[in-house]
Design goal:
The complex is a heterodimer of chains A (about 500) and B (about 350). With about 500 residues, chain A is α/β, with parallel strands linked by helices. Chain A folds into 3 domains: about 5-240, Rossmann fold; about 245-335 and about 420-508, Rossmann fold (3-Layer(aba) Sandwich); about 350-420, no CATH class. Chain A contains 16 helices and 22 strands. A 6-stranded mixed beta sheet of chain A has the order 6-7-8-3-9-10, with helices on both faces. In chain A, β4 and β5 (about 70) form a beta hairpin. The radius of gyration of chain A is 24 Å and the shape is globular. Helices cover about 70% and strands about 0% of the residues of chain B. Chain B has 13 helices and no strands. Classes of the chains: A alpha/beta (about 500), B mainly alpha (about 350). At the A-B interface, β5, α2, α10 and β18 of A face α8 and α9 of B.
Chain lengths: ~500, ~350
């Protein structure tokens, strides 16, 4: 046995303190196939693949590559066994050239490396697999899509027969994703085995020859192409029925709440982040901001919420100038902010639920008497919010870092949207959330829209943008390159604009 | 867990210390017994333990406050010296004044002296991000040498037979004692400070800000808290409290300023604050333990064991506390040797 499969993992278990990340998982991958590993966040997909890539050691279980039992004690062992992994967060040295990154850590490279020969080899590989990238460019000059290609080249250069990609499309535009899938198909056709980790169902339908579904650390099913549909997969993944469509009543657009005029802001590096950006959001409207990560999303959110100084231009809230009034000023004007980094910016990991819920209220009258906090008022409010937003916790004073991702987001939303607000800035609000929590977050945002609040939604997920937005603004290199009513455009057009392409019939 | 780690750390440190003592040919369990009896078993030992615990407690509260905000104030010793120095200036300049004038003035001077010494490294930290570990540590040497200069030079007691000592404080500058023991009013200051700090940290808006900033500066910025201002304020208070420890030591025990009046209280305070997990009330308890350790060390010196054994034990305790944190966060286990990375099934 075992001849048929290139990779065979048998009854693999991995335990972390307090969680069983993998529970006797079986996984087989054939040469020449694209195998999708599907599951919600926290279902153990990445853990399983990290075991295969030699990053973690399994507590139990066996791994066979080409029928031979292997013990993978380090990524180097894994590479020697022919397994290469492309991580979600790239592991590249920004200041090195592409060629140097590709050979980095490769034991076959001689002490004095011949740059020319390596560059030639890499150029050959990238031609063969149509992975367009300049081997002499430095990594910091590359786009995210190009960086991913460098990672894939790295794996191919080492001659790996098994290619594992962890959520490869998370950072790509639809066009780039299609190109990637095409490349992966080519590699599989060449006799390699490709494993793709994802939680997006449409991707599974598009590329999977076989799919293995993980739920809570266990492999619940492995299905062949043609024997599954999206609904089945969703059911297997979540263990219950999932509503795909959310009712979105038509927008009742009111007054302009947020008006941004010719806004220019610097990045952390001192280079321009936003360059003369103008936008407006009305009451009762969700404006979705689409764009490839790193095109000014963070700068936009931080400039509006007062965290980043504005170089030029103005931010107006209900007609009042809030440019550079600072974080406190913006909060007091009724702006809620759901930041990208939930635990660490939005919440204080080591403090309890109560202390986290008063993060912005503690200065408000009623929450303190002189220098002392009004502890009873704080507790009562916390208990009420936790109840209303269904935050599941094991005590109001246990550190919130022990809560799950979905509960953390509910806690954050409870604080940020419960006040008397005019504007909500939400950045990547469903990143890392499972299907159920995503549903809950979206419902809450739509409730706020119905309540007449203006919502600036910044997201990298086009599905989310299209599901929620009334209008879509596309951000490219710090400018708005397109502003389209959501009903009159499609993901293709938005994707094109995200890459700097021309708008067709735009301009609202 | 919060109690288990410190307790285990102390026990493990004692075991490791015992191993070392046996290697040098001494009976560790007998010595430990002697130390314990010396520190807690006699009236003299017990009062000495309390006397030593007072400056440890106060300095521990001081540095612990800064640690809360993840400001690594290693400068407790220097702030303690500057506090003592400022209080001594008051005591010498206004010698002969009654206690109700002198003692409050000395307290205030010590708080200002220690506070400014803590504020000094906080300024570059708050505005330029200069690492406070290095600056606070280096300022210790400046403070200690400054006191040396004063005591060997301008402040030397003319009637002191050329010893490097200031003149003895007049009675108005000396803290009252408990009965005929050496235990002085500094103990009450320590208890009060612990209670006040506890209330400040857990019941006030400012304490809330300190806890938020300490845990997550990113979240503090996001909530509109002023981090730079709090860095200055917390280091000022941390230094001021350490300064009080210095004043209390010269006014309650030495009754004059002299070189080496502190055997590293400001450093030991760092260990105490960590062992107490930065909880002000726990600092009080732990300070008594360490006071006992110091006194026990002096006692066993009589039987020929160097008192540096105590320093070694203190170091071991800190080592095990820090190691305990790691063990709590990670699971450590042995992996069987599996030979080659890839082998035939």
């Amino acid at each position: 046995m075992g001849d048929e499969y290139l990779v065979e993992m048998r009854r693999v278990s991995k335990r972390f303190p307090g969680v069983l990340a993998n529970d006797r998982v079986d996984l087989t991958v054939r040469a020449g196939e694209i195998h999708v590993l599907l599951g919600e966040n926290g279902s153990g997909k990445s853990t399983l693949m990290s075991i295969l890539a030699g990053l973690y050691r399994p507590d139990e279980g066996e791994i066979y590559i080409g029928g031979r039992r292997v013990y993978l004690r380090s990524p180097r062992d894994a590479i020697r066994a022919g397994i290469g992994m492309v991580h979600q967060h790239f592991r590249l040295v920004d200041t090195f050239t592409v060629a140097r990154n590709v050979v980095l850590g490769d034991p076959r490279v001689p002490f004095f490396l011949s740059r020319r020969r390596i560059e030639r080899d890499i150029a050959g590989l990238s031609r063969q697999y149509k992975l367009r990238v300049d081997s002499r460019a430095r990594v910091w000059q590359l786009s995210v899509g190009e960086r991913q290609r460098v990672e894939i080249l790295k794996v191919l250069y080492r001659g790996c027969r098994v290619l594992v990609l962890d959520e490869p499309t998370a950072v790509l535009t639809p066009q780039e994703a299609r190109e990637l899938f095409h490349n992966l198909r080519e590699m599989a056709a060449n006799g390699r085995a490709v494993v793709v980790i994802t939680h997006k169902l449409p991707e599974v339908m598009e590329i999977a020859d076989r799919v293995t579904v993980l739920r809570r650390g266990r492999a619940v099913a492995t299905l062949e192409r043609g024997t599954f549909n999206q609904r089945d997969l969703a059911w297997l993944m979540v263990g219950r029925d999932v509503v795909f469509q959310i009712d979105k009543p038509p927008a009742s657009r009111g007054e302009i709440v947020l008006e941004i005029k010719d806004l220019s802001v610097l990045r952390d590096s001192g280079r321009p982040g936003l360059q003369g950006l103008s936008l407006d959001v009305r009451a009762g409207e969700i404006l979705g901001v689409a764009g490839v990560a790193g095109n000014g999303q963070r700068e936009l959110a931080e400039a509006v919420t007062g965290l980043r100084p504005v170089q030029a231009g103005a931010v107006l809230l209900a007609g009042r100038d809030i440019t550079n009034v600072g974080v406190r000023g913006v909060i007091e004007q009724g702006v809620g902010y759901i930041p990208e980094d939930r635990l660490g910016t939005g919440l204080v990991p080591g403090l309890g639920v109560v202390d986290n819920l008063i993060l912005k209220d503690y200065r408000r009258p009623g929450f303190h008497r002189g220098p002392f906090l009004n502890r009873r008022r704080c507790r009562e409010q916390a208990a009420a919010l936790v109840d209303r937003f269904d935050v599941r916790h094991s005590g109001l004073d246990t550190p919130v870092k022990l809560l799950s991702g979905g509960n953390l987001q509910r806690l954050l939303l409870a604080r940020e949207i419960s006040g008397a607000l005019r504007l909500i800035v939400a950045v990547y609000p469903i990143r890392g959330l499972d299907v159920g929590a995503t549903e809950a977050v979206h419902r809450m945002l739509l409730e706020q829209r119905a309540g007449g609040r203006a919502i600036l939604l910044i997201s990298e997920d086009l599905d989310e943008i299209f599901k929620l937005s009334d209008r879509i603004a596309v951000l490219y290199e710090g400018r708005v390159t397109g502003l389209l009513p959501a009903g009159e455009t499609n993901p293709e057009e938005v994707g094109l604009l995200m890459m700097g392409g021309p708008a067709k019939g735009a301009g609202v | 867990m919060s109690v288990l780690v410190p307790v285990c750390s102390v026990l493990l440190a004692l075991v490791a210390g015992a191993a070392f003592l046996s290697l040098t040919g001494r009976d560790p369990w007998f010595l430990y017994g002697e130390m314990f009896r010396g520190a807690f078993g006699t009236r003299y030992g017990l009062t000495e333990t309390v006397v030593k615990a007072i400056p440890l407690m106060i300095a521990g509260l001081g540095v612990g406050l800064a640690f809360r905000m993840k400001l690594w104030n290693i400068g407790g010793e220097g702030q303690l010296f500057m506090g003592a120095c400022a209080a001594t200036w008051v005591a010498l300049t206004f010698a002969g004044q009654p206690a109700w004038v002198l003692l409050p003035a000395m307290f205030a001077a010590a708080a200002v002296g220690g506070g400014l010494w803590g504020l000094l490294p906080a300024i570059p930290r708050a505005y330029l991000g200069v690492n406070e570990i290095i600056t606070t540590l280096m300022l210790n040497y400046v403070a200690i040498l400054w006191v040396d200069y004063l005591v060997y030079g301008p402040w030397r007691d003319p009637a002191g037979f050329n010893f490097p000592l200031t003149a003895r404080f007049t009675p108005g500058a000396v803290l009252p004692t408990l009965g005929d023991t050496r235990i002085h009013a500094g103990l009450l200051v320590g208890f009060t400070l612990a209670l006040v700090l506890y209330l400040v940290l857990y019941r006030t808006r400012w304490g809330y800000e300190i806890r938020v900033i300490g845990d997550s500066p990113g979240a503090a910025r996001y909530a509109g808290m002023r981090i730079g201002r709090n860095v200055l304020l917390v280091m000022l208070c941390s230094g001021a409290i350490c300064g009080l420890a210095g004043m209390i030591e010269v006014s309650g025990v030495a009754h004059r300023l002299q070189p080496g009046f502190s055997p590293g209280y400001g450093y030991t305070a760092i260990i105490i604050a960590w062992l107490a997990r930065l909880n002000p009330i726990a600092v009080v308890v732990v300070a008594f333990l360490f006071g006992g350790l110091l006194v026990g060390g002096f006692i066993v010196q009589i039987s020929g064991v160097p008192a540096t054994v105590v320093a070694m034990l203190q170091g071991l305790i800190l080592f095990f506390v820090l190691a305990g944190e790691v063990v709590l966060k990670y699971r450590v286990y042995r992996v069987r040797h599996t030979g080659m990375g890839v082998e035939q099934a």
